[in-house]
Amino acid sequence: MNNALQIVYLIPLLPLLGFLINGLGRNYLSKTLIGLIGSGSILGSLILSIWVFMQVKDGNTFVAEYFNFIAVDKLVIPFALKIDQLSAVFLLIITGVGFLIHVYSASYMHEEKPGHFGRYFAYLNLFVFSMLLLVMGANLVILFIGWEGVGLCSYLLIGYWFKKQEYNKAANKAFIMNRIGDLAFLIAIFWLIARVGTVSFDELFTAVNLAKLSASDITVITLLLFIGATGKSAQIPLYTWLPDAMAGPTPVSALIHAATMVTAGIYMIARSHVLYSMDAAELTRNIITYTGMATALLAATIALKQNDIKKVLAYSTVSQLGFMFVALGTGEYVAAVFHVMTHAFFKALLFLGSGSVIHAMGGEQDIRNMGGLSKKLRITYVTFFIGCIAIAGIPPFSGFFSKDAILLSAFMKSPVLYAVAVFTALLTAFYMFRLLIITFMGKFRGTDEQAHHLHESPLAMTLPLIILAVLSIVGGLVGIPEVIREGGHKLSAFLAPAVSSMPHEHHLSHSDEYLLMGISTGLVLATILAAFMVYRNYQRKDATGFAKVLENKWYVDELYDRIIVQPLHWLGGFLKDIFDLKVVDGLVNGAGRLVNYGSRQLRLLQSGQVGSYVLLMVLSMVLIFAIQFFLRK
Amino acid sequence: MPILNYIILSIALFSIGIVGVLTRRNAIIIFMCIELMLNAVNLLLVAFSKMHMNTAFKAGDLAGTAGTDGQIFVFFIMVVAAAEVSVGLAIIVMMYRNIHSVDVNFLNRLKQ
Questions:
Q1: B107 contacts A608? CB cut-off 8 A
Q2: How many angstroms separate the CA atoms of A507 and A63, rounded?
Q3: Does B105 touch chain A (CB under 8 A)?
Q4: What is the tens place of the pLDDT at every residue in A480-524?
Q5: Model confidence over A306-358: pLDDT tens digits?
Q6: Cross-chain Cβ contact A606/B111 below 8 Å
Q7: How far apart are CA A528 and CA A428, in angstroms?
Q8: Which of chain B's termini has less CB crowding within 10 Å, N or C?
Q9: A18 and A41 in contact (C-beta within 8 Å)?
Q10: How many helices (H) and strands (E) does chain B have?
Q11: CA–CA separation, A272 vs A86, rounded Å?
């Protein structure tokens, strides 16, 4: 039991301490101190995470049990943290990207009032704590605590500027939609407890315990877990909260709604991949694949016509998450985790870049009012460009390798799926370069005041951009396909003890693989060229026809409003005005009124006439005798 | 004498008692009527007791314990009646001292 990894509890504890100090001292501490505590606590976690990663690399995996969280009868759920290859990778992503975003935030949020600045960092630290708990939990219950924690922090941070009513609504939307998924997740946990009696990953995924599950159990549990994942990871039908979540500060979007929290669903499925790999889960795998693909395609088409710089990135995130689910559905868990990693790099980069742009534009988010920013924002422009190339998937940038692995898995599943996936990838390249071109190239379309105000962001903001840009370039090199270099997929080799992809029935020849890579790369380059041609001389004009449908997000929000929100409102109104007022209150008041009326009438019997009392007595006795006499058998 | 005669007498006494209680207003007369009802019951009990005893005797039971329950009952009723009379008369005396009347129709002040 004496293992050096026992102290891993410090990793989530440090951000928790940061949360407490910043949260309690937000009105007393200076902004500099708050920034230092906030970032410093994450830096501590990052250093510990790197140490943990080294330990895991040496083969030292460990489950650290601290105390019994729940102990009822035969059900014992310990508070335990699991350190293995999968959680080590996620730890690095969360603390690494998290640290950079904290540093960035300290500069980005500097205009806020001191109390609110402290509140912001407290939330952010609490988020990192919850996220770390999520990926370190050694059983589904601890994972669920983190899961709910990140949901809460997401809500708090989306509604950070709580004075704006619509921001509060966005926060509510995110919270409620997540809650739908969480319910399914919770039912899955209960189901597992009822059937197997344990939720610990190590015990759950043993042959003995898996044998306790029937085929239908596995289908239901995997589906319920997947529904939980659709909520958190913004998939159809629960994706609409993510674009609205852009109401929060931009670093929050980068950290929570791009790099970490939204990948929790992918982590959860990768963590329980043993269940998903079983034969009985084939239906679920298919549903995951097609849901992911549909989400990726739908979100990519919407992103084509969005004019809010953050909305484009948000739909892009939804789309990329869809890709990850395609990988999960086809059993390529490693590819999904790989894409989580590279996506965390380039999407955090893009979000922080957009934050830098918004900062320079004085809060303007509409790209139609931007343009030509490349001259003033050199570093932002270059890093944003790198991010776009990475997400578009041009070798040897990181996005290429991870996306290629997913495309390949789609091809193994069916050529049609592959075609749709490639088409979506092309859309991705198109809308990202549309965003880049409209924002940074051409002529400036904003007001003179904004033009005068334009400036590059301070070092605290550009440094994270540069680091993330470097990571976006080289991040993919840990997962070079085997076909290019033997043993090049270091991530796969590293993850092998914890997560391994399902074996494929047939293998592609090397030339075929090269061909597929060539096709996708060539098409992406052509698409980028096309984007340049189309948007080189961008003029703002109102969208018409199909473009208008896309700009209005396929009217999905309106549809949800019509078929879910409004009927619920109507039902609520009915229950409040009719059911509650008339039926419930009627019953309660009616009972009172009946007693009141009855007593008023009965009171008249109390006449004070002894004779009438006696008469009643006699009559009653006669009646009783009569009943006795006639009704007795 | 056939048992029917006793029963008819009892019913007559009991009915007189009931009618008296229902119709009279003088508390003392109501009281007497109650006593009348009690005694009608007593009479009936004794009559039935005697009847059962005779039947048992004819059937060969010479010990003669059959039907004695009824007579014991009569003693109990007498005791209770005596106790009741003492309490009841006391109430009537108090009533007379307070309202200078024994008419029960004046006893309606609890109504308010």
A1: yes
A2: 36
A3: yes
A4: 887 777 777 888 888 888 888 887 766 777 888 888 888 889 999
A5: 999 999 999 999 999 999 999 999 988 999 999 999 999 999 999 999 999 99
A6: yes
A7: 10
A8: C
A9: yes
A10: 3, 0
A11: 11
**Residue tagged 């091809």 (tokens):** A411
Which tokens hold the place of A561?
């409003």
Query: Is B18 an interface residue toward A (CB < 8 Å)?
Result: yes
Which residue in A610, A614, A618 is closest to B107 by CB distance? A610
Q: Residue A481 — φ and ψ, nearest 5°?
A: -60, 145
Amino acid in position A551? E
ipTM of the complex: 0.78
Asked if B59 has any chain A CB less than 8 Å from its own CB, the reply is: no
Q: Does B22 touch chain A (CB under 8 A)?
A: yes
CATH classification number, B3-111, choose in 1.10.287.3510, 3.20.20.70, 1.10.357.140, 3.40.1550.10? 1.10.287.3510
Task: Give Cβ neighbours of residue A572 (< 8 Å, ≥ 6 apart).
Answer: none
Distance from CA of A581 to the nearest CA of B (A): 38
Residue of B22, B23, B25, B30 best to disrupt the A interface, most CBs of A under 10 A: B22
Which H or E element spans position A590? helix A585-603
* Residue among A344, A342, A358, A351 nearest A394 (CA): A342
Report the alpha-carbon distance of residue A359 to residue A631 in Å, rounded: 93
Q: Residue B108 and residue A608: Cβ atoms within 8 Å?
A: yes
In angstroms, the separation between the Cα of residue A590 and the nearest Cα of chain B is: 28
- Residues on chain A touching B106 (C-beta within 8 angstroms): none
Contacts of B22 in chain A (CB under 8 A): 611, 614-615, 618
Please tell me the pTM assigned to this model: 0.80
